[in-house]
Design goal:
Blueprint: H1 20-24, E1 27-31, E2 37-40, H2 42-48, H3 52-55, H4 60-64, H5 70-83, E3 87-94, E4 100-111, E5 117-125, H6 126-145, E6 149-153, E7 159-162, H7 164-170, H8 182-185, H9 191-204, E8 208-215, E9 225-235, E10 241-250, H10 252-277, H11 284-295, E11 302-308, H12 309-312, E12 325-334, H13 338-343, E13 350-353, H14 358-365, E14 369-371, H15 379-382, H16 386-395, E15 399-407, E16 410-419, H17 428-465, E17 472-473, E18 476-483, E19 492-500, E20 506-516, H18 517-535, H19 541-553, E21 560-568, E22 573-579, E23 585-587, E24 594-595, E25 613-617, E26 623-627, H20 639-650, H21 657-668, E27 677-684
Antiparallel strand pairs: 1-2, 1-5, 3-4, 4-5, 6-7, 6-10, 8-9, 9-10, 11-12, 11-16, 12-13, 14-15, 15-16, 17-18, 18-27, 19-20, 20-21, 21-22, 22-25, 23-24, 23-26, 26-27
InterPro entries: Bact_Sigma-Reg, GAF, GAF-like_dom_sf, PAS, PAS-like_dom_sf, PAS_4, PAS_fold, PPM-type-like_dom_sf
Keywords: Hydrolase
Domain PAS: 15-82, 137-203
């Protein structure tokens, strides 16, 4: 219920009083013209210690002022009442309990509608007033001089005040903040997240501390910056919500340092990944693919590994200023960039790049070439052809980097990198990372290149030493195969031979020199030559192996296994001697395939061990299968299990010998087998 004559405003301010006066404890005292108390507020009771019933009607000076100040107060009271001028000041008052307190006064004359004069005194404990003054002064100085941006928002999230530091951070004068929202003042920040946080603090009262945001302000419109924002709800002494206070700290340098540290961590992780993934084999193409796989997408959206054709062929290459570069593409990897992928040279293709091309410049000078921001005029120097340049333009290639692959002082080729989806241009950090990857990979690529060249040489030698024979000879139909080891393994010393002898006889030989590489292939060639020479003497198989044993002893301590058999079509027999080799398999109509029971004998080169000859009867249609251990031996399975698998494959309907050879190799010899295979199958023909 409202007091008579004083209408009540039902607006928000009438129900949300300020608590500041309560904090001050302002007392109200009204005196009549004679200086007697006619009104005494509850705050006056607390301040002076007199209850209202004791103070009302009393001469105020007697109960409020110490005797020593009585004359001064009476004079001041008279001046206020006579002149009407207000007076303000502080002097000690005497409380009812006799204690003294320094009180701040504001005195003024009042006039009612009857013309009567009164004096109104507003007073408060001076220590409380001074404390609030200090707090206000301190707050003002802190806010004004603080390097931290500070702002106050009303309950509608509009700026009420900002300090000079926030003006500088935002690049917007204080006056242009007031009455506007963050969205209106700083639209290039993550406004949705900021306003959501502000509303949550306003509703719950739980502060938000160090919320990180990144964006742009008018203070630095082209420079992305980072800030930590803290938000607190403001309430008065009565708990009424006044709005929000916010602090803003610029952490751009720390943010950039964090980005750089994360980039450095990623670079180290990428280099570690490259060390683990590149060079897992000595296969040239696979090593190049591993390098391209590591580079995409961490470093580039499309990566190509190209080698100079001369380098692939084992020759050194040096380019003059006007020479083109003949380059073979080894690997291409792309991250969702089909147009750019079509513009690249397909793996295995050889292309000629003119002297003006950037990749030519890279391999000619041995130095990186970087075009941070690719313009249309740059594309013809990047692409292999005008058509490829158009594809790169369609793909949106905007940054280019080529680094040389250098190993042992020789430029092998280049790692070619392009960015499409990654919006950042290549920079110095990317260049350092690309050079580190290229340096590590180049050594592995060079190792693979030399290994492949050596392997190709050994394989050429191996194949040149193996015989070519007619499909039918001396009453036998013959089929053979030589299959080298997997691409990452060296060529071995496996061989076979079919040697026509006098009287229609035929010698069948399968052998395996221990070791691998050119030395094993060369030893195999010498043993094959010796076998051919000795076979012409029509020696017993055991005697022939004894001679081979002595020859092998003189070949740099080489060791070999061998099966030597002589087929006699007149006697329908085959005499066989074994030098530490796996036994041949025999297939006869109406019988399951079997391994011949032969004395194993010692390998050639051991010396001092006698060999023996076993005679095996053969009928038309019978087949003998000779093989080296690479066909059946693996690290995962017992040898007996693999020999059983061989016999199982040989069991079944009679097939053409060439088909049987393919079946055995396809089924038993694994692609990653580290040993080569020699296979020889002979079928006894009916008498002509």
């Amino acid at each position: 219920m409202s007091a008579p004559g004083f209408p009540v405003d039902e607006g928000p301010e009438s129900v949300r009083p300020s608590g500041l006066l309560d904090v001050l404890g302002v007392a109200s005292v009204v005196l009549d013209a004679r200086g007697h108390v006619v009104l005494w507020s509850p705050q006056a009771e607390e301040l002076f210690g007199y209850p209202a019933q004791e103070a009302l009607g009393q001469y105020a000076a007697r109960i409020m002022v110490h005797e020593e100040h009585l004359d001064l107060v009476v004079k001041l009271f008279a001046d206020v009442m006579l002149t009407g001028q207000s007076w303000a000041g502080a002097f000690p008052i005497r409380r009812k309990d006799g204690s003294t307190r320094l009180v701040e006064f504001r005195n003024m004359r009042l006039l009612d509608d009857h013309g009567d004069v009164y004096a109104l005194g507003l007073c408060a404990d001076r220590s409380t007033v001074r404390r609030l003054e200090r707090d206000v002064a301190l707050s003002t100085q802190v806010i004004t001089q603080s390097p931290v941006g500070l702002a106050v928002f009303d309950t509608e999230l509009r700026y009420v005040s900002v300090n000079p530091a926030l003006e500088r951070l935002n690049g917007v004068p204080a006056a242009e903040h007031i009455g506007r929202s963050v969205r209106e003042v700083l639209p290039l920040l993550d406004v949705d997240a900021i306003e959501t946080a502000m509303r949550r603090v306003l509703e719950t009262g739980r502060p938000v501390v160090d919320h990180k945001t990144v964006g742009w302000t008018p203070a630095a419109p082209e420079d992305e910056r980072a800030w930590l924002i803290s938000l607190y709800r403001l309430e008065d002494a009565t708990g009424t919500v006044l709005g929000l206070a916010g602090s803003v700290v610029d952490v751009t340098e720390q943010h950039r340092a964090g980005i750089e540290a994360e980039a450095a961590r990623r670079r180290l992780a990428l280099i570690a990944d490259a060390s683990a993934r590149i060079g897992t084999t000595l296969e040239l193409d696979r090593t190049a693919r591993e390098l391209a796989d590591v580079a995409v997408p961490e470093l580039a959206d499309i990566a190509a590994v190209d080698l100079l054709e001369a380098v692939v062929e084992g020759r050194r290459s040096s380019l003059g200023p006007s020479e083109s570069a003949v380059i073979r593409a080894l690997a291409v990897e792309a991250d969702d960039a089909p147009e750019a992928l079509r513009a690249a040279d397909p793996p295995g293709q050889v292309a000629r790049y003119g002297p003006d091309r950037l990749v030519t410049e890279c391999v000619r000078t041995g130095r990186p070439v970087m075009v941070a921001e690719v313009r249309p005029a740059d594309l013809p120097r990047i692409a292999r052809s005008p058509e490829a340049a158009e594809l790169l333009a369609e793909a949106g290639v905007h940054s280019y980097l080529a680094v040389p692959l250098i190993a042992r002082g020789e430029v092998l080729g280049a790692l070619d990198l392009k960015r499409i989806r990654n919006p950042l241009p290549f920079g110095e950090d990317d260049l350092l990372l690309a050079r580190e990857l290229a340096a590590r990979a180049a050594v592995q690529i060079d190792n693979a290149r030399w290994y492949q060249n050596a392997r190709d040489t050994a394989l050429t030698l191996q194949r040149s030493l193996l015989p070519s024979h007619p499909p039918v000879t001396g009453g036998l139909e013959v089929a053979s195969r030589y299959q080298p080891a997997g691409a990452t393994s060296e060529v071995g010393g496996d061989w076979f031979d079919v040697i026509p002898l006098d009287d229609g006889k035929t010698a069948l030989v399968v052998g395996d020199v221990m070791g691998s590489g050119i030395n094993a292939a060369a030893t195999m060639g010498r043993l094959r030559t010796a076998t051919n020479t000795l076979a012409s003497l029509d020696l017993d198989p055991a005697r022939l192996l004894e001679h081979l044993d002595r020859i092998t002893e003189g070949l740099d301590h080489s060791i070999a296994t061998c099966v030597y058999a002589v087929h006699d079509p007149e006697l329908w027999q085959c005499r066989i001697a074994n030098a530490g080799h796996l036994p041949p398999a025999r297939l006869r109509a109406g019988h399951p395939p079997e391994l011949l029971e032969l004395p194993t004998g010692a390998p050639l080169g051991v010396g001092g061990v006698a060999f023996s000859t076993t005679t095996v009867d053969l009928e038309p249609g019978d087949r003998l299968v000779f093989y080296t251990d690479g066909l059946v031996e693996t690290r995962q399975h017992p040898l007996d299990e693999r020999l059983d698998a061989l016999l199982a494959l040989l069991d079944g309907p009679d097939r053409p010998l060439e088909e049987v050879c393919d079946l055995l190799l396809r089924t038993l010899h694994q692609p990653d087998n580290s040993d080569d295979v020699a296979l020889l199958i002979a079928r006894v023909q009916k008498a002509g």
